[in-house]
Amino acid sequence: MGYAYTNGTILDGTWAMEPLEGMALLQEGEKIVDIVPADRVPQGFAPIDLDGAYLLPGLVNLHVHLAMDGRPPKASKKPVDYTRLYHALTSNALLRAAARRRVAGFARTELMSGVTTIRTVGGVLDFDARVRDEIDAGRLVGPRIIASNMGVSVPGGHFAGSIATEAASPQMAVEHVDKIAQTKPNLIKLMVTGGVMDASEEGEPGVLRMPPEVVRAACDEAHRLGFKVAAHVESSEGVRVALEGGVDTIEHGASLDARAIALFKRRGAADVCTISPALPYAEFDLGESHAQPVAKRNGRIVMDSIVACAKTCLAQGIPVGLGNDVSCPFVTHYNFWRELCYFHRYVGASNAQTLHLATLGNAAIAGVSDVTGSLEPGKSADLLVVGSNPLEDLSALRDVRMVALRGRLQRHPRVRRFADIDALLDRYM
After folding, report:
1. Are 371 and 305 in contact (CB under 8 A)?
2. What is the domain-level CATH number for residue 396?
3. How far does the chain reach from its first CA to its final CA, in angstroms?
4. Cβ atoms 306, 45 nearer than 8 A
5. What is the C-alpha to C-alpha distance for residues 268 and 279, in angstroms, rounded to an integer?
6. Each residue of 160-215: pLDDT tens digit?
7. Residues 249 and 324 in one domain
8. Contacts of 130 (CB under 8 A, 6+ apart)
9. Beta carbons of 174 and 189 less than 8 angstroms apart
10. For the whole prediction, is pTM greater than 0.90?
């Protein structure tokens, strides 16, 4: 049986994003088949009454880590030792199975919060791809997953020894890419610079860690195997090295000069803006973030650079996508909608432009715009229903009434929320 979504307003995800009223979206199986006047729904389509709500494409989150839940460390505890935690999670078969179930649970939360496609950019072993395959086979409930599995870093680099391997030379980088490729990822992730959480000095968060020759070797091998490359970058020097080495997306970003802009355009590369992980470091009081003073100052540097990069890319016609670097402190799996609000507030994009980037724009960067990202005949029925108009207020996206992936409808989805985190973040809406 087909279904007809009626009695609501349709926002199709395209650039124009003109609200469609008095129309019905028709779904058969996993696909959207048409959008027709509500009084011309063919026989054989069971009505789904939206009761005045808004129907739009499911959101696409381009920067996700599935292994953690975003809960920050308590004030009384030492900073998280991610290498030690990684080894604890993978030390035996029983713990690996438990960790994989945890990853699957977080993936489900993404879907229930309105995100129908995620792109993971650094995870534990091959868990992301395995959960992806279980979802695709219908054995688990979760979003479409575009997985990188483990990333590639360098000794002493960002997340080296936990969610990223350590490549000490170009040849090792090639070997690591080949080994990751055997775990059946969809893309390759490189850790080109440092970050806020592993910086020891003020002004150091984006220091270049991966030598240019290692970046080039990893990119060449990934491209030879048919994979796109995403790169963690938080400095202007890192942007230049990453783009000259051949990466396809700059994750996070930094201030751009004319040379970097030209490299973006020559490579056809995209910027993935991630304000969510930097904001708590930059904006929270130290008693709230439990961060060291140096991390707060570095958080401000990174946040300002991420915003500046996105603004420049938009002005230059360089593709910009949105991700929230979920699992960083204070960044939960149900709060991607906040990244859209931050993008509107700090970058200055309109609500319509932001919503387009988080749906069809993100799908294009992820390479799946022929499948999802907009409500068009022939595309997957990846749907999100919210109670009020996100074109007027993007925080409407937190009120998820229904969500569907490949036409499988979840009514009244629920997620476990963290009231303490939400109370702190609501100040920035």
Report:
1. no
2. 2.30.40.10
3. 41
4. no
5. 28
6. 999 999 999 999 999 999 999 999 999 999 999 998 777 667 777 889 999 999 99
7. yes
8. 100
9. no
10. yes
